[in-house]
What does this fold into?
Amino acid sequence: MAVPSVVVQPRPSILSRLSESRNALGFGFMLPAAALLLVFLTYPLGLGVWLGFTDARIGRPGIFVGLENYEYLWSDAVFWLSVFNTLLYTISASILKFVLGLWLALILNQNLPFKSFFRAVVLLPWVVPTVLSAIAFWWIYDAQFSILSWALQQMGLIDHRINFLGDPTNARASVIAANVWRGIPFVAITLLAGLQTIPQSLYEAATLDGASRWQLFRYVTLPLLTPIIAITMTFSVLFTFTDFQLIYVLTRGGPVNATHLMATLSFQRGISGGQLGEGAAIAVAMIPFLLAAILFSYFGLQRRKWQQGGGD
Amino acid sequence: MAAIESNRPETDEGGMGYLQSLPRRVVTVYLPLLVFVIVLLFPFYWMTITAVKPNLEMTDYQNFNPFWVVHPTLEHIRYLLFDTSYPGWLLNTIIISTAATFLSLLASVFAAYAIERLRFSGARQVGLAVFLAYLVPPSILFIPLSVMVFNLGLYDTPFALILTYPTFLIPFCTWLLMGYFRSIPFELEECALIDGASRWQILTKIVLPLSVPGLISAGIFAFTLSWNEFIYALTFIQSSENKTVPVGVLTELVRSDVYEWGALMAGALIGSLPVVVLYSFFVEHYVSSMTGAVKE
It folds into this structure.
């Protein structure tokens, strides 16, 4: 019996084997991001759902109370008002942002002098912190010294000052206007990028076939732009639905809760009022709406893509 | 046909613009553009003009045209910088945004490289999870996070924000960098692998140097997003000296019923300047990477 001579080479060390395994290496590389996200995103998401089932208050852990928070909210007129406000705010602001943003994108897609200057300027409202621009709007909407009221009075269009934020209808319109102002740049610039990927030759071909300007837009621009519209509007709807800052600065939900969104109501009840459980329940109540919004705008618009024979 | 296509002179940028007459162009393009620009910029103009307007002119619309300022003053800015905690808030915001950006970029580079290039089993699912994480809005996380922050003893410290901002920064940066890494040819990495480079060497010596533009845009985005963040900063910070600019301006400068509009506008203006300056230096990056990220 000879000594077995099959040991060809020493087994690679555990470290070097790990560094060659995609899975081990992948795990290691994912670790920092995954740890941060699991601890500060996934866990709080679960904790929020749990808190919604408890009567936790600030400084008191709270015990499981089942659906009590939700039953209370179900019969709470203010909560339903906030749901209505949120839907009104999201739907009207998103439609306006889409129409105006698309229009602006189409304008910027023309051959303009100072093209990059205009693109830079247009993005400004999106770059500046929302709270700070909202403070500027607060001053523009001031009950006594509103520059808008003054200008309209000078033009002779109105005879008394507009109470922008004091009247329920005006307040809703004002916050929607401020949100649209802030949201247009994002929509316009992303759609502009989409427009620039459409080959000129398609327009030339369609023009030779006798297409009118409207037909060019309807049958060339719009179908090719649909995928990017879907994604842009999904984001836009999502951020509008969960908006907090603008309302918090301009009205804090007033007058008489006319502009309370679900996010601001959740903050008012959960943090200012100390009813963490109830605030969490309101936040959790936003999730189904968010999922519906994502599914609707994503799949609703995405379907066109395969109808036109695009990818899957 | 293809030859004709490619021979088309590059100067033909206007496309079919020549088909439009000038008057028509004025009505359909220049006039709406002018209105858009005026509406989009007016709040900034109003912010600036109010910041340098003496109180007397600010409320007297009879004798002074509100759209202009007769005797500009730096009084509001002086008040803001020397009589309030504003400089401290600026410093807090800079520290918190820089730390959160750095932390997020570091984590995102590894995550994006692993998902995009290591292709470990389940990489696609992890990529999708990262995308979904970006869709989770802060508005539904701030209550449970405030409980956590309190229990961890981070309440009212900058760490509360430095550790929570990555929840929206990491998904965003990872997503952006994944797109960027995808554009780097595989062949470069294969060559390096054949030459015996480790994955770490490939990442630091090949992929990262090639993706500096992507890193810059991800960094700017992350910095801007942290700078603009409001709801976490409002919820997790209590004492005046730990506040960030957006929260400080809103909660500390608004006292009683007499609004210090001049100081408020000066605060908003100075608080906006860093991101605007940062952005104006990299505007082309910004636009192209924003659209690149969205195109995903």
Notes: The mean pLDDT of chain A is 85. Chain A touches chain B through 98 residues (CB under 8 Å). DSSP finds 13 helices and no strands in chain A. The first helix of chain A runs from residue 14 to 20.
